[in-house]
Amino acid sequence: MNVHTILRTKGKSVVTIHPDATVERAVAVLRLRGIGALVVSDDGENVVGILSERDIVEALGRYGGDLLAVSVSEVMACPVVTCEPADSVAELMAEMTNRRIRHFPVVDDGRLVGIVSIGDLVKSRLDEIEYEAHSMRSFIAGAA
Fold first, then answer.
1. pLDDT (tens digit, 9 = 90+) per residue, 75-122?
2. Which domains does the chain have, with CATH numbers?
3. CA within 20 to 30 Å of 65's CA: 10, 101, 113, 130, which one?
4. At residue 47, what are phi and psi to the nearest 5 degrees?
């Protein structure tokens, strides 16, 4: 299974934020959308950074109470580790584990086309295992 398959089911919608936006605005968007990360983009297609809950907590330690007024560009993670639609779920799960990240913006020909989270990858892998188990049970039942 690959990223393209996940995006076909999940959809390609990505919540982005401009690098000049404040952290206060970013926190409001994260809360409103119930998501854990925002792709930072100046045009909705070009990925310039990513801002996760972890980045915000880390920045809170640096900026304290002044953090909400700071621009997203000051606290975002950059450069961003991205993936492509053809990348396999297994490869990305390993990469997320090794790098300790939970989100991959999906880029195709330099354009942002989606985002996958560790939850998306785990769900896809569990669905695949469930399908394989069901197929094996059906095969065994048919052979008996």
1. 999 999 999 999 999 999 999 999 999 999 999 999 999 999 999 998
2. 3-143 (3.10.580.10)
3. 101
4. -85, 120
